[in-house]
Amino acid sequence: MRPHLDTPAGTDAGGSTGLFRLHPDGTASRGSRTYGLVVLAGVILFLLVALVFSPADTGSENQMGDMVRIMYVHVPVAVACYVAFLVTAITSIAYLWKRTEGWDVLAVASAEIGVVFTFLTLATGSIWGHIAWGTWWEWDARLTSTLVLFIMYLGYLALRGAILDPVVRAKRAAILGVVAFVNVPIVHYSVTWWRGLHQDATVSKVDPSIDGLKLFALMFGMVLAVALYGWLMIHRFRLHYAAARLEASGLDRALAERRAEARPDAVTADAASTDAVPTDAVTTEGTLS
Amino acid sequence: MAEHPGPRPGSLGALLADARLVAAKDLRLEWRSRVILSQVLPFAVLVLILFAFALDPDRRILGQATPGLYWLAVLFSTLLALQRSFTVEAENGVTDSLRMSGLDPGGVFLGKTAGIALHLVALQLVLLAGVTVFYGTTPHGPLLLLAAGATATLGLAAIGSILGVMAAGLKVRDSLLPLLMLPMVAPVLIGASQAFTAAYDRDPGAGWRWIAMLGVFGCLYTAIGIVAFEPLLEET
Amino acid sequence: MSPLLAAQNEWAYVAGGYGVTVGALLLLTVATIVRGRRVSRQLPPEERRWL
Q1: DSSP assignment, residue B37?
Q2: How far does chain B reach from its first CA to its final CA, in angstroms?
Q3: Are residues A98 and A121 in the same domain?
Q4: Complex confidence, ipTM
Q5: Site from A69, A74, A228 to mutate, C interface, most C CB atoms within 10 angstroms
Q6: Does residue A21 lie within any of the structural domains?
Q7: Does A129 share its domain with A263?
Q8: In this predicted model, what pLDDT tens digit does every residue of A22-41 receive, in sequence order?
Q9: What is the pTM for the complete model shown?
């Protein structure tokens, strides 16, 4: 890896040292690198606060002790997953309105990150449940709606995987993105009503008091999760955008090769031949007409 | 430009006229091939039978679980009916001709939804008879049952039409459609089962809230379908 | 089961939760970066509009 960058204009060669060193083939830019380092610093700070500095939960009958720390990851990843799917819905609507590829790329990037965060919500939620109720799964409202959410967006990714044509894929996925997100509150309410009929002690078994440094850890976690989502979005967007450009240019290249194959015949044949390829046609048009 | 007799294009009248056209086509197709009748309905009864095999009939689980099992059978059979409904089109290139004939996409959606809804009604009548006979439960609260059936049918048909077209023409359609549809209709399964439970338990008060939710679901996805069918039916 | 698990168990679950989270996000990050490099390597520089 070259330690100093001599790449296209726009790259600030002066800042190409240490942690700002950008890989020439990478999807990073000066801005995103700065952003990423800030997020990284935030993660380290957060881990210190959440795991070391913030106190254990004490002082109430249903105290959680050190277990409360699992909340500092569970709630933030849940927030991030909802943000991600909201963004997918909004960018899907934007795509249907504007029909530009960029919106579709945003939608898929956000959905992919959202699925990961949803998985983490389920995993940390399950751990929380094991702590609070002793079982790895309970059909409570939040866990259940998150599970449905997870599968809905796995379906979204599956639909995208099944369609080859980029425009058809973008259109259908956009509609699904909206249809799925609109369903989120409905799923949430029906599951809540449904489980509300069975007010177990599961709901009230733990009653942590979140204040002071604990509250700070929770809030900081939420902000950090959204910030991390943003950084991942930048890179995944660029990744998908580059892939789309590659696909498009691959198509152009294939077409050009196809024309190049036809060219040797057109050159040897009559210059006025109607089979002349576009480049030839441009020069022969004057003589033909 | 030829005269266009009948409702003004783009008006509500045109929407409904196109809907009736599409629904009539679907029902005529079904009448001729009788696939729903000869395959989907027997499948539905088969599902009920399988539930009995899986759950011990002697322990009265079937009776207690009747609402849920009923709606599960409806859901699985609906998937089958949808696959059928959209296969016919893909095979005969009917989707293309629908597009090119200048029919209002919203009308096409309403027509397809109406056709599917009618099949679902037939399905549910058969299943209701099935659970009464096989699970020994007597239906109660007919008004609640009817409301639940109607609103759930609307929701299932609307979502089924949207997702059916979305997955149409794909090689993986048969595995993709259930994956897309089943999580999406979770509220219908929950709501309709709860409403039926309330009816069977002779506690109808609890059930009407679910009817409201099912109604919202159905109307919402009907509205979405009318708008979404235009981009869905577009050629690329 | 009491909401308070024995002291020696507690940290295992918290560690597990944090581990899964950090691990999964790290995995996503690495996968994104690596694939991003692989794809943009095949693109001519003028297509890389973020630099």
Answers
A1: I
A2: 26
A3: yes
A4: 0.90
A5: A69
A6: no
A7: no
A8: 777 788 888 888 999 999 99
A9: 0.85
